[in-house]
Amino acid sequence: MLKTNAFDAATSGNIPAESVAMIERRRRLLGPAYQLFYKNPVHLVRGEGVWVYDAEGRRYLDVYNNVPSVGHCHPHVLEALVRQASTLNTHTRYLHENVLNFAEKLLSTMPAELSQVMFTCTGSEANDLALRIAEDFTGGTGVIVTEFSYHGMTKAIAGLSASMGPYVKVNGDARVIPAPIHHPADPAQVGKKFANDIRAALADMRRHGIKPAALMIDTFFTSDGGFFDPAGFLQEAIDVVHDAGALYIADEVQPGYGRSGEHWWGFQRHGVLPDIVSLGKPMGNGHPMAGITIQPHILERFGNESSYFNTFGGNTVSSAVGLAVLEVIEQENLIPSVGRAGKAILEGISALAERFPAIGSVRGAGLFVSVDFMTADGAPDSITALAVVNALREEGVLIGASGPHANILKIRPPLVFTAEHSQILVSALENVLSKMF
Amino acid sequence: MLKTNAFDAATSGNIPAESVAMIERRRRLLGPAYQLFYKNPVHLVRGEGVWVYDAEGRRYLDVYNNVPSVGHCHPHVLEALVRQASTLNTHTRYLHENVLNFAEKLLSTMPAELSQVMFTCTGSEANDLALRIAEDFTGGTGVIVTEFSYHGMTKAIAGLSASMGPYVKVNGDARVIPAPIHHPADPAQVGKKFANDIRAALADMRRHGIKPAALMIDTFFTSDGGFFDPAGFLQEAIDVVHDAGALYIADEVQPGYGRSGEHWWGFQRHGVLPDIVSLGKPMGNGHPMAGITIQPHILERFGNESSYFNTFGGNTVSSAVGLAVLEVIEQENLIPSVGRAGKAILEGISALAERFPAIGSVRGAGLFVSVDFMTADGAPDSITALAVVNALREEGVLIGASGPHANILKIRPPLVFTAEHSQILVSALENVLSKMF
């Protein structure tokens, strides 16, 4: 998964000498794990709102980055960062209002049952902590994840990230089930099948003497390719998990923070209540911060016995930044605006799908939209998808591909993306497809 | 370990009403895992250099915090943060000079063999990544750690942090050995015994069919209580580890970044060469960043096959901040200054030890100094140590205690602490001890 759209010297485009030198320097200093995007990697130097600029001053519409959630270099977030970083930056073992004000504001966006929060620095750490708590609470070790899941990079969580490829082993007590594939012809079967797949996984755990601990899923199945419909389809699955004594961990690192354009949190689309919610990327608009929210009875024993501490998590600066991001989402009324921009993308690309048969399904929730590319005989078409990704880069639009076959355009821009930006995206895609077909 | 010096409502001092309200709010919002320092917790609002200020404007000498390594709110670091955060904050999959300039500068402080670096956000993530690479390179799963080790909070690394107490299980394939206890009467035996303990652990792994992967140690055995002498004592241990086909992971989260006052890195005190070095706390002067440096042949396969990526690690802002911290250490010539300040602490407290028999051993390397408190019959005296910690807080000095018996004063201030600040610390300690004895 993670090598989708990776630069490869063997198949690279016509790259400027300056980029060649930087790529060589990266390889030497950072080693082989560091990947670059695009056949012709982008050298960015500046960002503002939904726009980023390269070293030649060329402007790109950012349709890829969900981390700068309220827009690159948002002045309100910047002001909070500067103010607090120039005053005091300390951990949570001294009293300070910032972590409390941020915690209170964040929790106010959640269902009342999720009334406590703990802070980490990365979504990987958030999921790792959620896993530790779930194992502690249930006494189980079995975790159910989807086929092309991605939940992070710690040793324990890499073992629950089935998208990492054959080299990274899935945890032996974990069970991998199919993602709830989009099925517009028979929407009722999506949730039914997903729940049945969970029943089968639980039965298989029982056969192997594994006690179940949790279902850990990205609410929008982001790395699996993006599956959103029908709203509410998760309910039966969650009931099955709870009946088995296991917890439901909602990985909201990508679906959360208003991305659905309907609610603050992706799980609200399905009317379900998680036991633990993990948070990450958009929380700090780029500042490294993440965390979990949790129902207190689940945290009680672990919190008392295990004395978790995260040096940087919830520090005075991170808390100021996190609060500022929530304020922007509220003050700029971003959630309905996300809904409008997302609808414009869906409508625009659905219209293109009628003209370009290479486009299969188009689906989304707010500013997370997935566009499948398919061959004439109905197979996933990663060649076209990656050609589109690279052609859009040349057109001035940064975008990525995802899914187990790397054939799915992944559209998840900053939340300040408006319907006007959606039009720019749709036009660029139309240009690219017109040249290709 | 982590509850050493924790606030406890049952034994608390006379706490201002404002603090009581904040403590209640913390418990409600953050749950039971969050600990506060001191019987009377400190409410800090501002920091500058080695000084922090509480809400009443009272000033405290910061002898505890190694995270604000070049001093609270250092202007050069702040300027780098503001400049880059207001320009562009993106991940490492686009080309950008910052991560390369930072990587190059950081690696220039390391032995030539450690020529590649990967960036994470926390020391926990750094040790977790080091572990994954060591297991991959060796094919082993056995890790040797010390009795009261602390390496971080991910599930895998909490299982290698023996100081976490009985509730957090040590990984079944890990082996726990005694720390290399200070032995001024027979310094030669320190390294010999430590190497023999490793030989025994390796033999026990063989008996259990566990293939060894690594020795993971904090170079200064920080959480074990601080053991530094004699310089060079680690060499035999590392040879034993390498002879067994395992790697030496140097946890330099606390000993690194010039803290020894002699070298950039703690392991240089012992003349040994790690296979992987993990870095954390001081890297960003409070900005959440960490990483590993590594010998390229060890990273090669893992890096190519496992496609590690850390969303925030090495981003444009973190890299700018990290570079600025290294520049300050160099431009302000902090390493020799750390050596002078540390020597003044050692000498001052050694003189106090002659007057106050409660002080047992005083030992250190640069600005990491350990002071054991012992009872009259030679047992570890945590009651006195914690009384001193709380009394120093009232005297305007922030400090902590550590070690398996919580009887060891832990002195590890910001690196801009000078010999003049050392005198303030020594005088405050003299005052406190004079009142107590």
From TrEMBL, chains A, B:
Gene3D superfamilies: Aspartate Aminotransferase, domain 1, Type I PLP-dependent aspartate aminotransferase-like (Major domain). It comes from the Bacteria. Coiled coil: none annotated. Transmembrane segments: none annotated. Pfam families: Aminotran_3 (PF00202). GO terms for molecular function: transaminase activity. Keywords: Aminotransferase, Pyridoxal phosphate, Transferase. Belongs to the class-III pyridoxal-phosphate-dependent aminotransferase family. Its cofactor is pyridoxal 5'-phosphate. This is Aminotransferase.
